[in-house]
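README, section 4: Worked example with a bound small molecule

Sections 1 through 3 covered apo chains. Here we extend the same pipeline to holo records, where the ligand is supplied as SMILES alongside the sequence. The molecule in this example is 2-acetamido-2-deoxy-beta-D-glucopyranose. Nothing else about the input changes; the structure line simply encodes the ligand pose together with the chain.
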Amino acid sequence: MGQLFFFSFLPLVSFLMIIFSQTKPVMAVSLNTNSRWIVNEDGQRVKLSCVNWVSHLAPVVAEGLSKQPMDAISKRIVSMGFNCVRLTWPLSLATNRSLASLTVRQSFQSLGLSQYISSIQDNNPSIVDLSLIKAFQAVVANLGANNLMVILDNHISEPGWCCSETDGNGFFGDKYFNPDVWIDGLTQMATMFKGVSNFVGMSLRNELRGPRQNVNDWYRYMQKGAEAVHSANPDVLVILSGLSYDTDLSFLRNQPLSLTFTGKLVFEAHRYGFTDDKTWRNGNANEACGIVLDIIMRSAGFLVEQGWPLFFSEFGMDLRGNNTLLNRYMNCFLSLAANLDFDWALWTLGGSYYVKQGVIGFNEYYGLLTWNWTDPRNSNFLQRISALQSPFQGPGLSESNEHQIIFHPLTGLCVLKESMPELLKLGPCNSSEAWSYTANKNLSLKGTNFCLQVDGLGKPAKLGSDDCTGSGSQWETISDSKMHLSSEVGNATSFCLDVDSDRIIVTNICKCLSKDTTCDPESQWFKLIKSTRNLNS
Ligand SMILES: *[C@@H]1O[C@H](CO)[C@@H](O)[C@H](O)[C@H]1NC(C)=O
Ligand SMILES: *[C@@H]1O[C@H](CO)[C@@H](O)[C@H](O)[C@H]1NC(C)=O
Ligand SMILES: *[C@@H]1O[C@H](CO)[C@@H](O)[C@H](O)[C@H]1NC(C)=O
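The generated complex, written as structure tokens:
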């Protein structure tokens, strides 16, 4: 019965979907930069909170369309709190006409993957006989109908998994990376999507790398690519990736890029836990976090301080959550993401690929969604990134509102006060207390005399108005990660803020500040974040 109903209903649904997606007013966004911020036409900050959606593998069809209708996927992206998608594409989709004009059906057939055709037919009947380029446009249009901004990311030249040193796609002049063809492809794509209102930016090339990479050619070709994209489509942000798999933009510190246009340039950076595998594996978590944050600041984070927008367009982890090293990295990274309040794109959306490196139905453990693209793989993780999905600072928020929030990256929650009984607990950052960190090192509720105080080992931290100059009420950030909030009680003892199993804020002995490589200090990791958000509380 259910099936019969489903099949007879489907054409009506897709008919209505077409009507709706054509008549529904779609937001028009044109983004610019203002110093380090990305802003809309009214000058208000728009924080890119994106997820990567892969469309550059062998079939050159956005992944997941055999599992779910594209509109359901778009709506799922919205429901997970994102406002944008970094959609990947292979260069040949724009430069090889015979590839671009293959239909979705033909593309799967030619790869010997005909088994996907009927499930694409079931879930997305309207695209099966569209050409690859039209199907790609349909995905962008559907994201737009769901008010999701799109960044088109030229991920690779030839369709397939990216990236290695020697895959011929790494740097200008490599086997599959002719700079002229690349510029032609970028121009085609920027032109084709001109006027598409949710198309806001173009990542010019993902993860430059390999034996040919060098700074001189970076300037030479990135400049050309940026000019080509801008003249083809002056509406979109031009987003440039660094060297060494986009982990290194340090060369920009002393030699800025010279372009004929302003207000559109954004830099992107990537980093994963495995990038610094040895550091995390062999080091103490606080020391490793200190080292890695220092590398990120020197190689990319400094751009924010120099007044450039930084789009952290790839980071992610195995969302089964059982890899200690990746978990440590994520906690460390989330503290930086909150502190610098940069734009970002998580790797990745999909729970599986049609085919990745020869494996059919490859399970993507970094994917937010499950293998069948129905549900979030790890809802806990979604909570952890939710605080980062809206801006803490920037044009459009009120500077006079400035306060600190106490962010806890392990949970993605913030320290707030509950009244009955009066307790400090972790809760949603939007309901955070507004704190101030004063010159005499008190953490006070903003505008009051109440300061955070130690009550004793293992006991809930308290708010007191007496004795804010006494022992147990001055707080310092200690350890290499600078994420333990510690207060001295008596001569030789310090307690650190911690969280108990009921999410109550307590004070404990400071955990594994250095040396110990086995212990996890992350329950004690807190980051003071400058915020000018309006708070609900
Ligand atoms: C263009 O794409 C077609 C279809 O995939 C392929 O057979 C052909 O080799 C490609 N041409 C070039 C020049 O890469
Ligand atoms: C995580 O768990 C899965 C299956 O439960 C296992 O295959 C994998 O090796 C584990 N990863 C780590 C790092 O322990
Ligand atoms: C999707 O996968 C989950 C678990 O992997 C399973 O419980 C669920 O039934 C699947 N849904 C469909 C529609 O196949």
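What to look for in the output: The radius of gyration is 25 Å. The chain has 14 helices and 24 strands.

Section 5 describes how to batch many such records.
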